[in-house]
Amino acid sequence: MLKTEGLTLHYGGSQILYGIDFEARAGEVTCIMGTNGVGKTSFLKALAGTHPRSGGTIEFDGESLGRLAPQDMARRGLATVPQGRMIFPLLTVRENLETGFALLPRAERRIPESIYDLFPVLKDMSGRRGGDLSGGQQQQLAIARAMIMRPKVLLLDEPTEGIQPNIIQQIGQVITYLRDRGDMAIILVEQYFEFAHALADRFYVLRRGAVSFAGPTASFDKATLRAEVSV
How, if at all, do strands 185-189 and 153-157 pair? Predict the structure, then answer.
C-alpha cells in the first residue's frame, strides 16, 4: 500500500533521515520504534507531506508520487493521528468529527454508526467540547476523526502517550479490528514496547535517522527485539 526507497529529509542544513527503505502492507500493522530523536515523527511527516522529503521516492497504492501537499496525500487516502492528538478544543466532539468531511463527497458526509460502536464514549459526549475531554477520550476522538476520512493508510504517532491503561486496551482493540478488515495499512510509531509487540506484524527500528533493524515480528525473538529498540 505504501513504500519508500532512499527517503531523506532535512531541517535546514541538518539531515534527519538517511535513505529510508520502508514498506507497509494492507491488513498489517507496521511499527516504527527507536529512542527519542531518531527521526520517527519526521518520517511520518515526510509520508504525510507536512514536511517535504529531500530525496527518495514514495509509492502509494501502486502510484509513484512527487512532493505532494498534505491535503493531496489525504485525498489519496492517507490519514494521520498526530502525537499530542491536536483536536480542536473549542469545537464539540461532533464538530471535530465533521472536520473529516472535507475530503468526502457531499452525499457521504455523515458519521458512520460504526465510529460510535468502536468509541461509545464519543456518542455520549457528542455535544461536549473537545478540550473538556480527558486525554484518553481525546485520543479516541483523534482516531475516530481520522477514520471518518476512510483512509487506505493510517499513521498513528504514539497513541498510548499519557493515556490511562483501560483506554490503551481499547485503542489496541480498535487497531486490531482495523487491521483485520484487511483494507488498510496501519503505520504505528510507539514507545510502549508491550503494546507495539502485541499488535505489530512488522518492525522497523530507527537509529540516528536510518533503519538499523527491520523484519516480520514473528521472525525475531522478543527479548532480542526489545534490546534492539532500547539501545
Answer: parallel
